[in-house]
Amino acid sequence: MADSPVEIQAGFDLDAPADEIITAALGEILELDDVDPYFGFFDLGLTSATALRLVRVLRTRWPDLRIIDVFDNPTVADLAAHLERA
Q1: Tens digits of per-residue pLDDT, 52-84?
Q2: CA distances in angstroms from 38 to 35, 49, 60, listed in the order given
Q3: DSSP structure class, residue 2
């Protein structure tokens, strides 16, 4: 993997709202400039391998996040709502 979680997390504020953190991390991992919060992760190009990278990055803020949470909440909006409830 080219980027470590530390390198990726340097690009966004971990104190920001959940949707902003997820959008920033997803955009960086998938090399996207614009991420629609209601568009499916896997439609954007997320794979199982990149989903694992996303989880590793997001665990810096939400240590209990599991890969299944990404599959069960497959948009930025869904995952942000899930994380804010947790």
Answers
A1: 999 999 999 999 999 999 999 999 999 999 999
A2: 9, 21, 23
A3: -
Q: How confident is the model at residue 6 (pLDDT cuts 50, 70, 90)?
A: very low
Taking CA 51 as the corner, what is the angle to CA 14 and CA 82, rounded to the nearest 5 degrees? 55
- In sequence order, the 6+-apart residues with CB closer than 8 A to the CB of 48 are none
**Contacts of residue 46, Cβ cutoff 8 Å, sequence gap at least 6:** 26, 29, 30, 54, 70
Which string of DSSP letters, residue by residue, matches 38-72? Answer: TS-HHHHT--HHHHHHHHHHHTTT-TT--HHHHHH
